[in-house]
Structure to design on (123 residues):
């Protein structure tokens, strides 16, 4: 009787652990962020790639920048030259939902998508 009881308890525990293993949450996908920017066109990406507009290599950039002095840093704080607070580079760009690249918030639309649309219209 004890043998059957211990076998039954073991099966219940095993079944419970299988259900818990299947219901375990998966790791969240890391949010993409702006890491590379083309110095020519100003287009950004979250992966190393050639610029889709000018075909030149994109450069890796820091997280924070001083727009006045053109100084960048990976840490927040004041600019070492002018002592203005450094701005987050991600706050200056927006991500295009169509192509996935980043473009300056000062532009009204994505230059990559606009260029593709212009090429299709010329045909």
């Amino acid at each position: 009787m004890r043998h059957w009881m211990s076998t039954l308890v073991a099966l219940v525990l095993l079944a419970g652990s299988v259900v818990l293993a299947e219901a375990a949450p998966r790791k969240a996908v890391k949010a993409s962020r702006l890491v590379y920017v083309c110095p020519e066109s100003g287009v950004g990406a979250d992966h190393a790639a050639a610029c889709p507009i000018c075909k030149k290599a994109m450069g890796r950039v820091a997280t924070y920048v001083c727009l006045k002095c053109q100084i960048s840093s990976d840490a927040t704080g004041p600019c070492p030259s002018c002592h203005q607070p450094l701005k987050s580079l991600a706050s200056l760009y927006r991500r295009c939902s169509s192509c996935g690249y980043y473009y300056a918030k000062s532009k009204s639309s994505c230059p990559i998508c606009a260029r593709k649309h212009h090429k299709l219209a010329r045909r």
Summary: The chain has one domain: 36-122.
